[in-house]
Amino acid sequence: MRKITKIAVLTSGGDAPGMNPCIRAVVRTAIYNKLEVVGIRQGYQGLIDNNMYEMNTRSVSNILNLGGTILKTARCLPFRTDEGMETAYNNIKAQGIDGIVVIGGDGTFTGALRFSQRFPDIAVMGVPGTIDNDLYGSTYTLGFDTATNTVIEAIDKIRDTADAHDRLFFIEVMGRDSGAIALRAGISCGAEAILLPERATAIDDLIESLKAGQFNKKSSSIVIVAEGDKSGGVYDLAERVRGQVKFYDIKVTILGHLQRGGSPSAFDRILGSRLGFAAVNALIAGKSQMMVGLEANHIKLTTLEEALTQHQFKLEDDLMQMSEILSI
Ligand code: ATP
Fold first, then answer.
1. Is the pTM of this model over 0.85?
2. Interval 177-187: pLDDT, tens
3. Which residue in the list 132, 145, 229, 268 is annotated as catalytic?
4. Which atom of ligand 1 is nearest to the CA of 134?
5. Does the residue 319 lie in any domain?
6. What does 218-266 look like in DSSP terms, one character per residue?
7. Which H/E stretch holds residue 118?
8. How many domains does the chain fold into?
9. Are residues 153 and 219 in the same domain?
10. pLDDT digits 0-9 by tens, 250-287
11. Given the CA of residue 15, which atom of ligand 1 is nearest to it?
12. 158, part of any domain
């Protein structure tokens, strides 16, 4: 069995609330187990630039409540090249690192898997850190809960003004190709319609349901549009509806990057702690090329290969159907 004496931790891709609690757990679990631990700044870019520092128990004091990531993150093109990976490998070897915890989304895992297939003497362990909740092998990814709560708080405020003015709001939320945030936020805010990338949008049906809402004396309407929705963008959608729905004043809001920020929720702090703890224990147990996730409230290891090939978010038809009924 491979013996791990020194590990590194990095965050990569889009930042997500909960990354800091996870970094804290990685560092302290490593030190508890008498491993040395190194923080890599700016994701894979830090591996290439040798931008690393030794961490101790105090390096991660008072970060549980912080959004973002104290290690910074980056989207790093050179890591996709053979030369970039080789430079990273040489820097890792020079530091005596034998295992890396990578916290990120599917792109980060693709990089980790390619790297470790090429250099199998370095063990890699993935932690799903993305607000998109789009990875196979974990019911929840780090940041999804906090981001959804942030979206809900914003939409509740928009609902107040929508109601006061008899307005219809089209609100775009994040999630890339996944409608996970849109669906949960839609249920939580009583959205009149939720448009998701996983489902083709029938404009005629949307207009009919808005008309039915007006007939039922609704004083406002909220349509949540996932950013990956394929009906041509939120402004275009609003224009097409404007021509046929005269009873509401129509407005558009794109929530944007505020969805990534903020102090992690209790759920994400606990999830980050559990996944970070489990990731280090898995490395110590000799595992590599895997992702730690949470399924049915238990830690589960999934191969990176499987997490990546089956990562498509499946539309939860039952939730969608319930949301449509509850918003009549
Ligand atoms: P999020 O889901 O929040 O966007 P992500 O991890 O999917 O997070 P990406 O920007 O797609 O974010 O990927 C993060 C980094 O992983 C990239 O900047 C790049 O350095 C590395 N990466 C992505 N794909 C590959 C690949 N095919 N080969 C090597 N490295 C890759």
1. yes
2. 899 999 999 99
3. 132
4. 2
5. no
6. -S-EEEEEETT-SSS-HHHHHHHHHTT--SSEEEEEE-GGGGG-SPPPH
7. helix 106-118
8. 2
9. yes
10. 999 999 999 999 999 999 999 999 999 999 999 999 99
11. 3
12. yes
